[in-house]
Amino acid sequence: MRAVVMRRNIIIAVLLIFVIFSFYIFFKAPTNQRNWKIGFDILPEIQIDSTTITIKNIRNFKHISDDSFEVNYYDQSYDLDKLESLWFVLSPFADQWRGPAHSFLSFGFSDSQYISVSVEARKEVGEGYSIIGGIFKKFELMYVIGDERDLIGLRTVIWEDDVLVYPIKTGKENVRKLFIDVLNRAKKIQTEPEFYNTLWSNCTSNLYDHVNKIWPGRLSGGWKLIFTGYSDELVFEKDLIKTDLSLERARLFFRVNERAKHYFGLDDFSVNIRNFSQK
């Protein structure tokens, strides 16, 4: 009898903890006011005019090691009439299994300027990324707008992760619409913060939403939006990568690690990592 009572009390306690936790998660509200980790503490500021985009706080950290860097931001105006190319950047975290990865977009201009937009979990001081935490509202959502010398250089040189830079097959008008839509979302988060979610509001699923908003039904969803290392398969299957190669060969061809290491930190970094004729 005593064991039965104890077992019942344990079950009640577990259920009570679950209910309290569920209420906490349900009512927890996103905010931009936290003790943010350096690199996630400053949101980009965006002004959109008819033919000009002005972005303040473009991240361009000078990375020395994983925990040593020089903080640097700059402001830049972009002529939308010069916007001409779109690039899908994919960085798998592991060699053995492609599942975990990060993806983002880069936009190219005819004057050799490039700007990247990376949807990320916004981390506080002392926090690291957690898949489970990302499901339970541990992180807010952030659109990091950065220089490729930072966002690609960090992953290739410091973290030594593979980085694949795929040219996307589409017209300039579509690139322009997508760029403006992505920036409008980044601008909205300044006043209307949102939570990151590992399953339905992660780095790749948000890009998927932007693309389908511009081209309804162009991409399908599914497990490749969760296991983002396979998201290039989704893009390849829809014939969106500008290549005649097989996916396996394209992954090798559009890998930029060696060139990124060679041109790391230089002004012509973005142009030279796209010199795909170099082996």
Can you characterise this structure?
This protein has 279 residues and is of the alpha+beta class. Helix content is 35%, strand content 23%. It has nine helices and ten strands. A five-stranded antiparallel β-sheet has the order 9-8-7-6-10, with helices on both faces. β7 (101-109) and β8 form a beta hairpin. α4 crosses α5. The longest helix is centred in the N-terminal third of the chain and has 26 residues, at 2-27. It is globular and about 80 Å long.
List keywords for this structure.
single chain, 279 residues, alpha+beta, 3-stranded antiparallel β-sheet, 9 helices, 35% helix, globular
Give a quick account of the main beta sheet: strands, pairing sense, barrel closure.
5 strands, antiparallel
* Main structural class: alpha+beta
What's the alpha carbon Rg, rounded to whole Å? 21 Å
Distance between the termini: 75 Å
Runs in which pLDDT lies below 50 for 5 or more consecutive residues are: none
Describe the protein's topology.
Elements: H1 2-27, E1 45-48, E2 52-59, E3 62-65, E4 68-70, E5 73-79, E6 83-92, E7 101-109, E8 114-122, H2 131-135, E9 140-146, H3 148-158, E10 164-167, H4 172-191, H5 203-214, H6 231-237, H7 247-253, H8 257-262, H9 269-273
Antiparallel strand pairs: 1-2, 2-5, 3-4, 6-7, 6-10, 7-8, 8-9
